[in-house]
Write a structure and sequence with these properties.
There is one protein chain. By secondary structure, the protein is α/β, with parallel strands linked by helices. The chain has two domains: 4-223, Spore Coat Polysaccharide Biosynthesis Protein SpsA, Chain A (Alpha-Beta Complex); 234-339, no CATH class. 39% of the residues lie in helices and 21% in strands. Helix 8 runs antiparallel to helix 9. The radius of gyration is 19 Å and the shape is globular.
Length: 341
């Protein structure tokens, strides 16, 4: 059997409603030679598997024995797939027409590009960028993620202002094409994250080895967002705060490690006090819980850092904004990507 060129892999857990809405569009817009659509199921019990078997017999199913989360689910599923490129696709994403050829062309044309991501617009408001990835992801020097087209919760209208394909710091796990050899060779997604920011951690590890991540804006997908946890969910706040600290410990260069981690932890404390002052006790508790979990697992993250450091051959990245996003956004009132200098 010949190797698949691209495996479009959707991870599902009790997402029957989403599959009914989005899977038909994925299948219809992925009829490209060498492309296979696969659903990896995290042991759903809502009829998802039966729905796929009855309505999409050409979609391959990988059945996992329990819910391994986003990171673990993808790792276990992708180890069972033989393809040149993996394309991780959320179950609440509708690809636009002709979305795959620009991504494949980018990967084929440049062996130094380890991964690439399409432009992500909102499914509900198609003229707007979507929170999860917009036109490519970046971080500031303290680890706060943002995008071309989205800073914190401020979303821009897509008017073509970010149509230039450029190197970015991270591509969203909502729709990310990556070389299978690199994904498998660099350990895939970190399962200690469970969900949220694990794709940023993976992209950082890739960049530290000298590869590129590209935003390919000729390809467009439409993301519902919040299909598993919406932005106002305190558990998502917990995961984001904890996982951001995990990511910094694992990947910051040695000379910047302690100072930047300390400042980030102080900024988290300010955020927690802000939640408390607003009476948002669930979110204040989420920040506290995130830090206690981080301290508990710090030894494990430091061991991962020690293991990864000898493999780093590039630790200065132009894709990291050398400033504080908090300062520029809240104090300098710079609310768009183009305003950041």
């Amino acid at each position: 059997m010949s190797r698949t060129k691209v495996a479009v892999v959707i991870l599902n857990w009790n997402g029957l409603k989403l599959l009914k809405t989005y899977l038909p569009e994925v299948v219809a817009n992925s009829e490209v030679e060498g492309v296979e659509v696969i659903v990896a199921d995290n042991n759903s019990d809502d009829g998802s598997v039966e729905y796929i078997k009855e309505n999409f017999p050409d979609v391959k199913l990988i059945l996992l024995d329990k819910n391994y989360g986003f990171a673990g689910g993808y790792n276990k599923a992708l180890h069972q797939i033989d393809a040149e490129y993996f394309l991780l696709l959320n179950s609440d994403v509708a690809p636009g027409e002709n979305w795959l050829p620009p991504l494949i062309e980018m990967m084929d044309s440049d062996p130094e590009t380890a991964a690439c991501a399409p432009k992500i617009r909102s499914y509900k408001e198609p003229e707007m960028f979507e929170y999860a990835g917009a036109a490519g992801g970046f971080i500031d020097k303290y680890g706060f993620p943002f995008c071309r087209g989205r800073i914190f919760d401020v979303l821009e209208k897509d008017e073509g202002q970010y149509d230039e394909p450029i190197p970015v710091f991270w591509g969203s796990g909502a729709a990310l094409m990556i070389r299978s050899e690199i994904y498998n060779g660099y350990g895939g997604l970190d399962e200690d994250f469970f969900a949220h920011m694990e794709e940023i951690d993976l992209c950082w590890r890739i960049l530290n080895r000298g590869y590129r991540i590209m935003s390919v804006t000729q390809s467009v997908v439409y993301h519902l967002g919040g299909g598993t946890l919406n932005q106002q969910n305190s558990h998502k706040t917990y995961l984001n705060f904890r996982n951001n600290l995990y990511m910094l410990v694992k990947n910051l260069p040695e000379k910047k490690f302690r100072r930047r981690l300390l400042i980030r932890m102080l900024l988290d404390g300010i955020a927690g006090l802000h939640f408390l002052a607003k009476g948002e006790f669930a979110f204040f508790s989420a920040v506290l819980k995130a830090h206690f979990s981080f301290y508990k697992n710090l030894g494990s993250m430091l061991r991962k850092r020690k293991k990864q450091l000898p493999e780093v051959n590039k630790d200065i990245h132009d894709e990291i904004f050398n400033g504080s996003l908090v300062w520029h956004f809240f104090f300098k009132k710079q609310r768009t990507f183009k305003e950041l200098k």
